Amino acid sequence: MSLSLQSPLSSALSSRSSFLQKGGGGGEGRLRLLSGSLSSNSIFFKLHNPSFPQIRASSLDAGASTELDAVSSLSEIVPDTVVFDDFQKFPPTAATVSSSLLLGICSLPDTIFRSAVDTALADSGCSSLENDVLRLSCFANKALVNVGGDLSKLVPGRVSTEVDARLAYDTHGIIRKVHDLLKSYGEIDVPPERLLFKIPATWQGIEASRLLESEGIQTHLTFVYSFVQAAAAAQAGASVIQIFVGRLRDWSRNHSGDPEIEAALKRGEDPGLALVTKAYNYIHKYGYKSKLMAAAVRNKQDLFSLLGVDYIIAPLKVMESLKESITTPDEKYSFVRRLSPHSAAAYSFSEEELIKWDQLSLASAMGPASVELLAAGLDGYVNQAKRVEELFAKIWPPPNV
Q1: What pTM value is reported for the model?
Q2: Which domains does the chain have, with CATH numbers?
Q3: Exposed, middle or buried by CB within 10 Å (0-12, 13-18, 19+), for 122?
Q4: Active-site positions?
Q5: What are 288-304's pLDDT values in tens digits?
Q6: I need a labelling partner for 54 at 20 to 30 A (CA). Which of 179, 210, 212, 330 fits?
Q7: Following CA atoms 292, 95, 97, 24 in sequence, which dihedral angle do they give, to the nearest 10 degrees?
C-alpha cells in the first residue's frame, strides 16, 4: 500500500526497516495488508481464500534455498495479496485502509471488522450533522479510522490511510483531511507514529506532502507515472514514492506520443522499469530521504530487473514461483543487485532534470502517459469513495444500534 515508512518489520522476518513501520506504505488494488517479507498503499488482499499458502521471506543466509530468500536480501518483497481475516495463517506486518477495503468489509457481514463500520455509523457526532453530504463523509472518515484502529492492534507496522481523492487538487483540503484523520485516530489512542497517509501525486498532493512532512506527518505519494512527479515528490520529502511499472508498460503498448516513454523504448528499455531506475538513482544520488516502491510488477523478470529498489510489490503468482524455485548455494548468490547507491552516483542527469520543480514546470513536463494514468487512478479512487457513501446512505442507521 508506500509502502515508506522504518524500524524492524518483525524479528522473525529480517533486520530491514519496514516502509510502514516508521514511514512507508503503498500498493495497487482492492483491500490491502502488508505482510510476508516486508509495506500505501501502499498491501492488497483478497477477501477469502482458505487455500492461500503461507509465504514468509527472510534475509539471505547460509540456509537460504529459494529464489524468494535470495531476492529478499536485495529488496523488501511485498506480497500484494493476503487472506482477509486469516491473520494466523499469513500474519501481515502493516496495513492500508481505503474505500475499497470498506466496500469489502460491508460485503462480508461476518468479518471481524464489521463492528468497526457499524460503530462509525452509530457515531453521534456524525449523525447530528444535518447536511447529508457532510454526514456521509463523516461516517466514511470514522469507518476508515475505526478499521485502521483495529488493524493497528493486529499488525506491528504502520497503518496507511487513504486520503479522499476528491481532494487531489486541493492542497489545504488534503491537509485538513489528514489533520482530521489524525485527530480521530488520537481519540481511539492510535499514536501518530503508527500512521501514514496516502496521497495522489498531483502538484497539490505533492505540496500537501511537503507541508505535512514538515510537521512530522509521514506521507506516501501514489499514482507516480513520470520522472518529474518522482523528482518533485522527493524534493517535497515524501516518505514513500510509488511507481506502477506494469501500468506504464500497458500504456506504451496501446499509445504513443509520450517523450519519456519513447526515449526508453528507443534505448530498448521497458518504460516502467526505466522510470523506477531513474527515480531511484535521483533519490540516492542527491540524498533525498524518500523510499521508492515499485508496484504493478507483473512477473519474475520485472522483479529481477528491479532488485535493489527499496520495496517491490509482487503478485501472489510471482511470490509462489519464487518460493517454489530452489537455488543451489552458488545460484542463490548470483542474483544481481540492479539498483544501488553506488550505481546511482554514476548516473547522469541533464540540467533540465535537476531544477527545483514547481507547479508550472511540473505541468509542462508531464507527458500524456502520466496525465492520463493519474486521471484514471483518481477516477477509480473517487468512484470507490462515492460507492462507500452511497452504501452508507442505504444502511444507516444500522440495526440494533
Answers
A1: 0.82
A2: 67-395 (3.20.20.70)
A3: middle
A4: 198
A5: 999 999 999 999 999 99
A6: 330
A7: -30
